[in-house]
């Protein structure tokens, strides 16, 4: 196991976590500014309202979090396997860096709707994850 591979993995995981913190913070700030809440107890506590429809920014943030929850666990698991299997630091930097940057860019295009950029950013991240998976399988088979 290379310590530099672990460093790249940690940096990518930290970037994804920072994106998570930003997205959840964006939801909370938007709810507080608009005084609109999803649940009646929140609306009552914060002296707001419970509108029939959510604020668009909050809806997009929720969808982004769901999208992240569907794919990022695979990245974290396969990335850790790659590091533990002795994945080369150069490839770690490439796979982890490309994936993390693509997910941050995807989030930006998700929160401020822009096509086809959002799909392109998603595709770049998916390709990085596929390459990481294949390389991890090659490393595992070589053991």
Structure commentary:
The chain is mainly α and 143 residues long. The chain has a single domain (3-141), classed as Up-down Bundle (Four Helix Bundle (Hemerythrin (Met), subunit A)), CATH 1.20.120.550. Helices cover 80% and strands 0% of the residues. It is built from five helices and no strands. It has helices at 3-34, 40-45, 56-84, 89-111, 117-141. α3 packs parallel to α5 and α4 (89-111) packs antiparallel against α5 (117-141).
Radius of gyration: 18 Å
Helix content: over 70%
Give me the strand/helix succession. HHHHH
CATH superfamily: Membrane associated eicosanoid/glutathione metabolism-like domain
List keywords for this structure.
mainly alpha; Four Helix Bundle (Hemerythrin (Met), subunit A)
Secondary structure layout plus pairing:
Layout: H1 3-34, H2 40-45, H3 56-84, H4 89-111, H5 117-141
Helix pairs in contact: 1-3, 1-4, 3-4, 3-5, 4-5
Would you summarize the structure shown here?
By secondary structure, the chain is an all-alpha fold.
């Amino acid at each position: 196991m290379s310590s530099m591979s672990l460093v790249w993995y940690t940096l990518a995981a930290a970037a994804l976590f920072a994106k998570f913190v930003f997205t959840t913070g964006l939801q909370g700030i938007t709810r507080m500014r608009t005084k609109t809440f999803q649940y009646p107890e929140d609306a009552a506590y914060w002296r707001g309202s419970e509108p029939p429809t959510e604020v668009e920014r909050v809806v997009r943030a929720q969808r982004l979090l769901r999208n992240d929850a569907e794919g990022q666990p695979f990245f974290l698991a396969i990335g850790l396997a790659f590091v533990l299997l002795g994945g080369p630091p150069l490839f770690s930097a490439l796979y982890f860096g490309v994936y993390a940057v693509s997910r941050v860019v995807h989030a930006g295009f998700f929160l401020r709707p822009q096509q086809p950029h959002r799909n392109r950013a998603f595709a770049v991240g998916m390709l990085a994850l596929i390459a990481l998976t294949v390389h991890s399988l090659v490393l595992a088979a070589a053991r």
